[in-house]
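Incident log, support desk, overnight shift.

02:14 A customer reports that sequence design results differ from what the structure should imply. Their input is reproduced verbatim below. On-call engineer (initials T.W.) acknowledged and began investigating.
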């Protein structure tokens, strides 16, 4: 099985480049494609967005149509799938899934696709494995970590920053969004090597893992 994985930023790629092999082993292949933000689903789903503007949801209709055409030429013994991984942020999960499925249903041929949405943000997957987080950051603040409820809407990256970054989210935010993005990449690189993909308290990570495994088993 081959996976084309779409993520909204570089930190997502850094995390999945480490996590995906832990899930699929060596018998399958994958590419992770980072974009420069999540953006919005365009109103004109049949239009062609400017490919140079690497904003994930803006490009998604064009991307899925392209993958549908590409995958249709793959041999039957080497199936492929698209995995979209993005943050829910403050959107309604049900409505967001409906919008994503509407895009997919406009594709002909339709690529095998799974939408895996981190709730509230990708940092929820790191906070879902406190053991890994503590190995990466032995001085992480238990008083902060103990207040976190898995996949809650609480300002997830800020919660992680409060636990591991000197001065917390307030100090990190004061450095600007470029610094926030850079620090998120550092978290991905430091925490994911320790993560146990079979034991994670984040339901949205469990969904991601399950969908990957289901696809690999269906392709065997």
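02:41 Re-run completed on a clean worker. Output:
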């Amino acid at each position: 099985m081959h996976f084309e994985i779409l993520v909204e930023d570089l930190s997502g790629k850094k995390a999945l480049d480490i996590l995906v092999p832990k899930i699929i082993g060596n018998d399958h292949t994958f590419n992770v494609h980072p974009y420069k933000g999540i953006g919005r689903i365009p109103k004109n789903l049949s239009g062609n967005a400017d490919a140079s503007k690497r904003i994930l949801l803006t490009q998604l209709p064009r991307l899925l149509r392209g993958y549908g055409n590409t995958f249709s030429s793959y041999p039957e013994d080497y199936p492929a799938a698209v995995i979209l991984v993005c943050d829910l942020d403050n959107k309604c999960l049900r409505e967001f899934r409906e919008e994503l499925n509407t895009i997919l249903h406009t594709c002909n041929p339709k690529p095998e696709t799974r939408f895996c949405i981190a709730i509230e943000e990708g940092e929820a997957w790191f906070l879902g494995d406190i053991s890994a987080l503590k190995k990466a950051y032995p001085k992480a603040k238990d008083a902060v970590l103990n207040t976190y409820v898995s996949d809650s809407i609480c300002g997830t990256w800020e919660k992680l920053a409060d636990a591991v970054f000197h001065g917390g989210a307030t100090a990190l935010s004061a450095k600007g969004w470029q610094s926030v993005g850079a620090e998120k990449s550092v978290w991905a690189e430091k925490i994911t090597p320790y993560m146990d993909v079979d034991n994670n308290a984040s339901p949205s990570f469990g969904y991601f893992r399950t969908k990957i495994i289901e696809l690999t088993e269906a392709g065997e």
